[in-house]
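pipeline/complex-builder :: batch 7 item 3
reading input block
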Amino acid sequence: MSIEPVRRLRRSPEAARQNILEAAERLLLDRGPQALKLVDVAKGAGVAHATVLHHFGSIDGVQTALMEQMIRQLVVQILTAVRPVDPAEQLESVGQVLFDAFESAGGARLAAWLELTGETRRLTIVRAAVEEVISGPMAQKGIAPETATNLILVAVSLAMGVGLIGRSLAELVGRPPESTRQAALDFLNAGLAAALKP
Amino acid sequence: MSIEPVRRLRRSPEAARQNILEAAERLLLDRGPQALKLVDVAKGAGVAHATVLHHFGSIDGVQTALMEQMIRQLVVQILTAVRPVDPAEQLESVGQVLFDAFESAGGARLAAWLELTGETRRLTIVRAAVEEVISGPMAQKGIAPETATNLILVAVSLAMGVGLIGRSLAELVGRPPESTRQAALDFLNAGLAAALKP
DNA sequence: GGCTCTATTGACATTTTTGTAGGTAACTCT
DNA sequence: AGAGTTACCTACAAAAATGTCAATAGAGCC
């Protein structure tokens, strides 16, 4: 009886890293940052934990790579949605886009993670994006930079809060989970409209 | 030369627990949940780590005790501020109170911690508080329960977002750290006023 | 003073998590 | 086909974190 060699899947370095990062992201989003253990990430990715170390050097390497990737994705997601579209009814969709980015795609959890671990410096990339929006679509609508900045600060904060605790909060007061989002969206749109009228 | 016995501070069980919880809270607030290590908590409290275990049984015991205490404090802080005061200019102060509770006192960080670790069920105590506010001060102002609930959902979400990422966000776009809070407060008050006028 | 109770501790033990080393197998290129 | 490269693995080692235990020392009580 011959011993048959163990079959091995061999990915490209990029594919391997991506596979691992996806596993890590899944863990982060549905079990929280403290679930980002080397062995668990490896198990989720279907590889040996030594393989994770081979590609990222350390568990910290995995974390920072994940942070950077998620930040990039978040920025791209928002920018592609807000960027030069027809400036007509865009206003109402901005809320939708923001809330989607922060709720469905784990933007809120990412931000919370960064904040709680003191890694907000990684967000500096976002600054350029914000300025693009202020001087692009918003300026086109005749919104002064000062006002634009304030609106962004508020809208993002709101999206953050809703994305993070919106569902729990609604359930807590005996409402359907989406009701926080809906209420916040209405409130935001009303406020935006009011702020841009006079 | 005689060996002199080691001097020991002996607290009451309650004082000992409190001392430890305060150390844990400090760690949580300025280093994040993953900094809640047994040894570090003990060091912060100035006791041996075995002492922590004696009082709380396990590190999980410390965490849940901390969660419960912080939740209690949060609820009390908000309720005592919102409760039966003169119903006159109370409206403007509500935002202040909420924002204080979620920002200065680590309400936002607490909530984020609970959310990320899936411990939101601990918040059920809050439900009673919310109902008290809805049927108390808010009803007195003639706000329908439906509207009241929506307003609370939005206001709390906003306070959450501002409390957690407000400062970082402002700095990110080159503004003074308090500007997010200020903008959010204005926006909230304007929205509240509008929602209660007609 | 002597006694009891227990908060406190250092030393040890266990478990969890992370990291290292060396060999194996998959792929590319010639 | 053969050689070189390296993604991947198993086995081991180290470190970090949690938990156990028996002894010690404050404090109240007789």
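note: Chain A touches chain B through 52 residues (CB under 8 Å).
queue -> next item
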